[in-house]
Design brief:
2 copies of one chain form a homodimer. Helices cover 38% and strands 19% of the residues of chain A. Chain A is of the alpha+beta class and 513 residues long. Chains A, B: It comes from Paenibacillus catalpae.
Chain lengths: 513, 513
């Protein structure tokens, strides 16, 4: 890996202090199978709401509902009841963002992501009474406590179960929305902000339950939402320096970065994600006007464009292949070529703006020529005049992603972009969108072409439906037509508070006020 | 409970410093079903003896054999192999004294003691590389490491697994045995000492795996073995003060004491165990000649005899009942009346000696009259002249325990005691012995009546067989005829290093040198 230690040091010097607050459980609940409920599980208030001081023996359990999404540290205080405890207490905690995580046994999990993400602990308590501060951080709304064993001589009762929630997002810095905004949008804004807040830790994490790390694709959207809400420039700057300070061997920005045991970049390389370093820097400069940072990081942004250009075929179209070379969306059949061409042009255009700000005229010319070459290639080789859509790959696939990204790249004249998006809704190509991340880009495209109503309608149909399905924070994955959808093989492992889903607050505050 | 704080404080001031030493695993083994092996499990050396640096992924495991019985703290050093770890490591450790604990799944356990004693941990490691010091103390020879999950992007390897073993028994203080002693007895002595050593912690524990606490029945035998080996008087004194400082409401000494979170006596009351406070004090004074402690604790010893006398019926025999009122042995059908009468007389005789040492003539008279009354009653009401055995309870049960304890009480003339023990072996009454604790008293009785050869033969037939069955330390329970015997419903939960089994070293060093 390519390490620039002074940049890494600068990132570390920007380590935020986390804000903590203590949350208490609000109710005891039962989670009941119900086909009409989201993912088949309904949350009912338990008949018996007592849990503190209740005497529990082997086989007893209760489910606490904190009625809020939390990221933090769980503490339990437990006392023995009966004779002096003559054996350890064996306890199981099952910790979940969603009812499915509490109700469906984790040993049924058979997805391809590591089962180690499923939040559970089996704890032996040798000495009672005990105050237990679990050392790991959890992300949850529900905690199921199973008393696996005490002994014939004693039982236990719980005096306290609480959570010290942590975030680097200071809600007091957020401007209140004007009163005239609909309640529905105000609620959507609040949930979006909570989503962003819970992902704001010592970096912008993608999901605080999973993967708990900094991905540049998520960072870009989080930072955009952040500039209109928490407005924490230092956290974005820290993340930019982490990506800039640790790159892949050829200089490409990595797709994600780990913080522990020391900051290090992952070996995942995604063409679109490397390019987003340009977009992130552009957005950061627009929001902060921090010229020093722009000057220091510009060479790395430029290098991303140069590296990206190396993948262009002679015809000016980015080279396709069968590997996981570009992210775009989780859709398993999506061809990445055309949408990636859109990302490239989109980022080149932001890079050009930065070159102008820096008065780098040589670089302006270089980028301008790249934009011209790639845009012309997109129209010439990817635009299918007959079908009225951009096509992607050797199979000439027509996908939502291709249209959306090439609209965002503004390859066609403005009025044709609007027409293209209308056609997309009319013809509904089969290769759709699977993530809020892709939905974000659809909405952004709609606002870009001036389709404010359509954008709002789509926000309501997507994030609004998540709210109806019980979202406390917005989810990594959501398909109103297939509510158990997971690209990982099980909805148990999905992240239910995910960075890339936080952008309704960005749309509301940027376009709807 | 009846607390004498100054006695408790004295006990706490005698808290020993533990001696620690680091033990490394010696081999990688397979545990293989084999009906001819002890409890059906054979330990084979694994073909592949490499474990350090071996790359392990989901589903991989290995079993480390430390080739010694250990009590202490496990430390692991683990490093990732492959891409940067993008998910926690999920690890399971199964920790056992015996092969059965490693080979038989703990979820099959169905005994009546708490399953929380079974030594296992499921650990999530969020950051790699990691050095993990497990906070709980384990008692084991074998550790099975199961890698439950890593991720598709990385595996792990173990750089170190070791154990910091702890004890308050300083082996350097033990006198070597003379060369002429047989190898078999030298080995038995060594294993007995190791058993005692591993039980010597901040108190004399009954078993370092289970129950990990101070029982007075075990203490008495441990102290006797200790005086001839480690000769740690302070640890016995600490234990005596714990029992003396915290008693049951009527003044009776409790059966056992817990140390944490602060010293406290259990609510278990056993008639024989309360009386053993007298015997423990007698043995301690004999070994230490510590007059100050004898003087301070004498009133409590006297009180135990007074309380015991309250249970005598008018005929001078201790009252029987259906509850768990006296321990004697784990045999489920054993009637406790006659053997308990033996314990009473045995302890009264030691109490009388202490009264003489203290020149308490009034008390001497009181105890002498009690001895006369209970001894006469034993002969008159419990001795069945026709059968030639002591009988116990309303069903006039003939058991080994009754004969042994009434021989130890020396109720009959000396030559008749020897005859009675011979008759016991000839007629083999059905109500036999189930624990090394009861076997100890048989051997002690044999030595007492001068049957040195028979005593040695029995030691070889019992502890010698345990050695042949692979004992690294002597076991809580052993029946050469039923090797899976457990009074708890499963041999998984038996203690395989147990205080009351450590006495071969006492017999060898007291009677056989």
């Amino acid at each position: 890996m390519l390490i620039n230690q002074s940049m890494v040091d600068k990132a570390e010097s920007l380590m935020p202090e986390l804000i903590s607050s203590v949350a208490e459980p609000k109710a005891v609940v039962d989670i009941v199978a119900d086909e009409s409920a989201f993912q088949g599980w309904r949350v009912d208030q338990a008949v018996d709401q007592e849990w503190k001081e209740k005497v529990l023996g082997k086989g007893d359990s209760f489910i606490l509902d904190f009625q809020d999404h939390l990221v933090g540290y769980i503490r339990l205080r437990i006392k023995p009841v009966g004779s002096p405890p003559d054996a350890p207490l064996k306890l199981k905690l099952t910790i979940g963002e969603m009812p499915c995580e509490i109700a469906e046994p984790f040993d049924t999990y058979n997805g391809w992501l590591s089962s180690s993400w499923l939040q559970e602990e089996t704890i032996f308590v040798d000495v009672l009474p005990a105050e237990i501060k679990l050392p790991r951080r959890y992300t949850f709304r529900f905690v199921k406590v199973d008393v696996l064993d005490t002994s014939v001589k004693y039982k236990v009762s719980f005096e306290e179960v609480n959570c010290t929630a942590v975030t680097s997002g200071d809600v007091s810095s957020i401007k209140p929305l004007p009163d005239q905004l609909s309640e529905e949008l105000a609620l959507m804004d609040r949930i979006a902000i909570k989503t962003l807040q819970d992902c704001m830790q010592s970096v912008f994490e993608d999901g605080p339950k999973r993967d708990r790390r900094l991905w540049i694709g998520d960072l870009r959207l989080q930072a955009q939402a952040n500039y209109l809400t928490f407005n924490n420039h230092d956290l974005v700057k820290r993340c930019l320096y982490l990506f800039a300070g640790m790159r892949l061997p050829d200089g490409a920005v990595g797709a994600c970065v780990f913080e522990k045991p020391h900051a290090h970049v992952d070996d995942t390389r995604l063409y679109d994600y490397s390019l987003f370093f340009v977009a992130c820097l552009y957005d950061y400069y627009e929001a902060s006007k921090d010229m020093a940072t722009l000057q220091e990081l510009w060479p790395i942004a430029l290098e991303q464009m140069e590296i990206a250009a190396q993948r262009l075929e002679e015809d000016g179209v980015v080279r396709d292949d069968e590997t996981w070379w570009s992210f775009i969306d989780w859709h398993p059949e999506l061809n990445k070529q055309a949408p990636t061409q859109g990302v490239l042009i989109y980022c080149l255009k932001q890079g050009l703006e930065l070159a102008r700000v820096l008065s780098e005229s040589d670089k302006q010319q270089y980028i301008e020529s790249l934009i011209e070459r790639t845009s012309a290639a997109a129209v010439k080789h990817l635009w299918d005049e007959e079908k009225g859509f951009f096509v992607s790959g050797s199979e000439r696939q027509i996908s939502w992603a291709s249209q959306i990204w090439l609209v965002l790249a503004e390859v066609l004249p403005a009025e044709e972009n609007a027409t293209l998006l209308n056609r997309l809704f009319e013809e509904q190509p089969a290769i759709g969108m699977t993530t809020p991340y892709m939905y974000h880009h659809l909405i952004e495209a709609l606002f870009t072409v001036g389709s404010r109503e359509k954008a709002l309608e789509q926000m309501q149909a997507y994030w609004g439906e998540m709210i109806k399905d019980g979202a406390d924070t917005f989810w990594e994955l959501y398909n109103p037509e297939d509510k158990k959808l997971s690209p990982y093989g099980s909805n148990l492992i999905n992240s239910y508070c995910h960075a890339w889903s936080c952008t309704p607050t960005y749309f509301i505050r940027k376009y709807l006020l």
